[in-house]
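Translate sequence into C-alpha cells.
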Amino acid sequence: MRVFRRFGQKLNHIDLQVLDVQRAALFFERCLAFELQTSRTSPAIAILGDKDGFVLVLQRSKDGATPIYPDGFHVGCLVDTIDEVRAFHAKAKEEGHVVSDIDTNSRGTMTYCRAPVAMSSSR
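Result follows.
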C-alpha cells in the first residue's frame, strides 16, 4: 500500500456550475449560513464563505447548459449540535426545498436536502 504525504496544503475552494447563480447563492446563504463575498447582482459568479474560511464559488454554467453532477455527488456539512440539524431541516422546508426526515444512526444525526433547481436539472 502506497502512503501519500500531505504537504501542508489547504483546500482553497470548490467551484460548482449552476443554472441560476443568484438563486443558488440564496440557498447557501439562507439554509447553510454562507456569507456572500461578491456582488449580489452578478448573474455569472458568486463567491461565498463560511465562518471557518471555506470558500464556495458558484458560476453560471457555460452556454446555459444544464450542469450534470455524477450519481452520488453531494455536499456534506458538519454541525456541532442536533439542534443545528433541526434548524437546517426547518429552514430548508420553510424555503420550499425537498428535505428528508431527520435520521439518527451510528454515524450521527442527519437530514438530506435535494439541490435547488437553480443548481441542476432532475434526472
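Note: Strands lie at 13-18, 35-36, 45-49, 55-60, 103-105, 108-110.
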